Structure formats: structure tokens, C-alpha cells
Amino acid sequence: MDKQEKAKERREKRRQEISLLRTIPYSDHQRWWSIDTIAVVTGANRGIGFEIVHQLALHGLTVVLTSRETAVGEEAAKVLQEGGLNVVFHQLDIVDPSSIETFTEWIKENYGGIDILVNNAGVNFNAGSDNGVEFSEQAINTNYFGTKNMIKAVIPLMRPSLSGARIVNVSSRLGRLNGRRNKIGNVELRQQLEDDEALSEELIDQTVNKFLEQVKDGSWTEGGWPQVFTDYSLSKLAVNTYTRLMGRILSERPEGQKIFINCYCPGWVKTAMTGWAGHVSPEDGADTAVWLALLPGQSITGKFFSERREIHF
């Protein structure tokens, strides 16, 4: 058996383990949540987002399913409501500041605040061996800036609790700083982004903006950027790095007001975004997001996960 086959076998075994873990109910002692716990999932009308809403609602939370388009979002929520789940819909476009403002005002009026945010909304315009950059601005605005704007808008709405509020960012291994095949080639920049003490929001913004400038002048191919799905990979690298940064900043909050933030890679999931070419089911793809959102005795923050295990950035 060659290396690839062995790796595939290991992945399949781990997915089987996770499917089994999902069938084990949380004990009353572990359940820090109730029907009054409010979770918000972005980009949730289909795929991984829809499945995250489904699994959280099955655990007995109230889940706000959001999507950019109202009709498809309402239809998705209706499917879950008809299954007896406590799911409500609200329109939300994470790249539109006025949409975010309308949404946060609605949350305040109806619930007072939230306990969990899962940033799932995202886009990818490449498939197979494609690596076009004509939609780079849209990819980075949605996947990084949209996610960041949601986090900033929702932090003031996070309700104080002994269990801590939770933010989970759906990301990708393609955005790893030191991925074997897809890392940033500029060693100096990579070291700056790896340095926890020096890391700043400005540095992350400068990095993605430099790439967008190079896309415009045509020099991006010599920029040392990730080689696979360059715009998507860089947007997710920015999400991962911002998660690390916010993990450090939010850990300074006092007990009772903690917010734990982590990101994870769902794998290559069989959804519309991958052109149905993935090998991971939406149920398995959603699993780690739900696990991180509900983790009892939470103390982990600013980390990156895959299949319920921490992985390196």
C-alpha cells in the first residue's frame, strides 16, 4: 500500500470514529446550553452551513439560520422547522455593512444577544486544476473581510456566561502558513505572520491587499503566494491568522465574559461549492464546528482544528 492509500485509509477510519462519537449524547453535566442558548450560522441555506444549523438545533439550541438570499434561506429554515427544530431565519449579507447592522439590531431586539457565532459564509470560484484570480476581490472581501466584520459586529452582542461565548470560523487547510504544498513562499512575510507577539490586524490586511494590488498589475504569479486556489487559499490564511490574533486578544477578557474563538477545516466536502466533487459528507464536514461550538469546559482558543483534532497553522 502506498503513502496516499495509507493516508486515505487513516482519514476514512477517523471519519468512522467521528460518526460514532456523534451518536453519543452529551450528559446533563456536560450540557451548558438550553433552548435559550442562541447560535447564529452564516451562509446556512445549504451545504455545510445548513448541516451545522441542523446539528446544533438537534442538540436543543435556538439557531438563527442566515443567508444572503431571503427566499432560499426561508425555505431552508422551513425544512428544519417542519422537523420540529427551533430554527429561525434572518437575511444577512456579510459583505454589506448595512445588512450586518440590520441583523445585529434584530438580534438585540429579539434575543438581547447571542452565545455562539459560526462564520460559515464563503465563496470559491475555482475548481479542479483551475487557478483564476478574476474574482479575487470578491473571494477576499467575503471570506476574510466579511468574516472579520461579523466578528467585530457580534462581539458586543456576546452574552456573559460561565461557559463562555464561542466563535467558530469555517476555514481550510489550504490556508496554512506552512502547508507542505501550498505555503507562502516569501519567508520574511511568513515569519512575520507566524510571530504571535508582533501579529496585528494591520499586517493581515496589508498582506491580502498587497496580493489584490499584484492581481491588478499582473505580478501576482511572482509574489510567492499559495499555488493552489490562490485567492481562496490566501483568504483562508487570513481567516486562520486573524483567529490566532483574536484568540490572544479575547483571552484577556475577565472570567464570566470569556469568548473562545477557533477555526477548523471541514475537509473537501461534497457540496455545491466543490462542484459535488468532495469526498466528505456535509454531516462529517459540519461535525467539528458543532463540537467546538458546544465543547464543555471550554478553554481552548485561537487554535486550528480538523476532525476534532488540533492541527498546525
From TrEMBL:
UniProt-listed Pfam families: adh_short
CDD domains according to UniProt: carb_red_PTCR-like_SDR_c
Enzyme Commission number(s): 1.1.1.-
Record GO terms (molecular function): oxidoreductase activity
Keyword Oxidoreductase annotated: yes
Keywords: NADP, Oxidoreductase
Similarity-based family: Belongs to the short-chain dehydrogenases/reductases (SDR) family.
Name under which the protein is recorded: Short-chain dehydrogenase/reductase
Organism from which the protein derives: Forsythia ovata
Lineage, uppermost ranks: Eukaryota, Viridiplantae, Streptophyta, Embryophyta, Tracheophyta
